[in-house]
C-alpha cells in the first residue's frame, strides 16, 4: 500500500481524525476506496480515470491524499464555484481536521486580476470616454484597499460595465518584469505565491492556456507539479478545442490598434506614425467587412510594415510588433488550417468570428499534458457512457490510463422518479412548441415551481420560457434575460418556488440541494446541431476510419450531456424529485434503450398522474 496509502487509510478509520475533527463528516465506503486509488496513483506516478457519481464525496477523496502527500499538487476545476469552494471552505476545514501544514494558493487566469499599468494608462487617456473613466475611478479607489487585486471582489462586473479589457492585460499586452508596476502587480504576486505553494488550485482554462502557450516573461505560467488532480474532467475536450485552436474576431484588431495608439500617445514624439497607424487601422476594419480574408490579409500586411518601423525604440513597441505578426499568422491559419484542424466562420459583418480547432483533442492533450512526468488523476461524475470509459479515453487521449468507478450512495428508487411521456410530438412538427409549453406548465404546477427547465437550443428557450413566465404564478428566471448566471442561481436558491429556464451552461457544474430544486425538465435528447462544422469534421474522420458517426460520436456525446443534466436533481440523501425527459423518440428509436439505460436507476413512468402523486406524497 505504501506510506501515503496507509496514512490516508488511517485518516478514514472509524474514530480517526475525520470522524473526530471534521464537522459533517459521514463515512462512505466508495469514498474511502477512491481515496486509496488516488493515493496509489500518486505514489506510482500513473494516470487514473475515476468516475465517482453524485454523492460519493470525490472532493474529500482527493483532498486527503493531496494534503498527506509531500508532492507539489495542482488541483484544477472547470467551474469557478468549485474552485472557490475548495479554497475558501473545503481545504481550510480539512487542513484543520488533519492538522496538515501544506501551503495553499489560488491562481486564476489573467482576466481575473487588475493590471495597475493599464488602469493607469486608460484612466487618463483622452481616447477613453467619460463614462468609462468614471467607472475606472471606482476601480482605482478599490485598488488602494484590495489585498490581492482579484476583480471578483469588486461590487460590479467590470466586463459587464465595458471596462474589463482596459483594466486587465492579455499575455501579449503584459510587459512582465519590465513593467513599471511590476512590484505591485496582483497577477505576478499570485504567480509568485503559487511558485512557493504545496497545493495550487486553478481552473482548466488556465491549465490548458499554459500548456498551449508555454511562453512569456516567466516561461510557463504555472510551475511544474508532481501531481495533477483534474476535477470535472469531462469538460476538458471541449476546452482543449478552444485553447489549442484560434478565434479571430474584429475585436482582436481593435484592441491592438487601441494599444498601439495609447503607446504612441504616451511617447508623444511620433505624430506621423500615429497618423499612419490610425489611417491604416480604418483600412483594416473596412477590410474585415469584405467577404473572404484576402483584403484583410493585404491590409494587415501594410500594418505589419508600420508596426515594424519603430519596434526597436521600446519594449512595448517590440511587443506590439510581435502581436501584429501573431495576428498575421492567425489570418493565414484561418485561410488554410493545418493538418488535423478544421476552420469555419460564424456571424456576419462586424460580428463575424473565425474559428480554427483541432478535429480530435486526444492527440493535442497527449502531447501537451499527458507527456509530462507526473501523476494525473481525472475525476468526474460522468466519464462513462453505457458503462464504458472508451469514449472518454478517446476524447482525452488516455488509452493507457487505469480506471475506476464508484456508484452513487443515493437511493434513486425511493428518492426520484423519471417521467418519460409517450405522447410528445416531434419537435419539428406543427404545434410542437405549444404542446411542449403546455406539458411543461402542467409539470411545474405539479411541483409548485422548484424546477430547472433545460433546453437543448436557444430557439426553444426563447419561445417557451416567456410564455411560462406569463402563465405561472412563480418567478421564472430566464437565461440571457434575468441577469448573470451566478445572479440567476442566487435568486433561484433564495426563492423556493422559482423556476429557472436555461440552456447548456446550466446542464453542469450547478449544485442546488434541498427543496428549491425538486424537478429537472429536459426538452429532448441533447444531440449537437448536425450543422456544427467541428462535429461534421469529427464524423468524417470517424467514418474514414471505418466507424459510425452516429454510434461513435453523436450518441455518446448526447448521452454524456444527458447524464450531466440529470445529475442536477438529487444532490443529497434528503433530496426528492422528478426528472422529466420530454422526448417520446426514446420509445421507438433504436438508441432509446441505450439512452434510458444511462439515466439514474429510478422508476420510469409515462403518466402525469404518477408525477402528481409523487409530489402529493412528499407534501403529506
From TrEMBL:
Required co-factor(s) are: [4Fe-4S] cluster
Record carries keyword Oxidoreductase: no
Biological process according to GO:
nucleobase-containing compound metabolic process
**Residue stretches making up the Helicase ATP-binding domain:** 17-285, 39-383
Q: What are the record keywords, sorted?
A: ATP-binding, DNA-binding, Helicase, Hydrolase, Iron, Iron-sulfur, Isomerase, Metal-binding, Nucleotide-binding
| UniProt EC number | 5.6.2.3
Q: What InterPro entries does the record tag this protein with?
A: ATP-dep_Helicase_C, DEAD/DEAH_box_helicase_dom, DinG/Rad3-like, Helic_SF1/SF2_ATP-bd_DinG/Rad3, Helicase_ATP-bd, P-loop_NTPase, RAD3-like_helicase_DEAD
- GO MF entries: 5'-3' DNA helicase activity; ATP binding; DNA binding; hydrolase activity, acting on acid anhydrides, in phosphorus-containing anhydrides; iron-sulfur cluster binding; metal ion binding
Q: What is an example of a Pfam family matching this protein?
A: DEAD
What's its catalytic activity? Answer: ATP + H2O = ADP + phosphate + H(+)
Family, per entry: Belongs to the helicase family. DinG subfamily.
Q: What is this protein called?
A: DNA 5'-3' helicase
Q: Which organism is it from?
A: Mariprofundus ferrooxydans PV-1
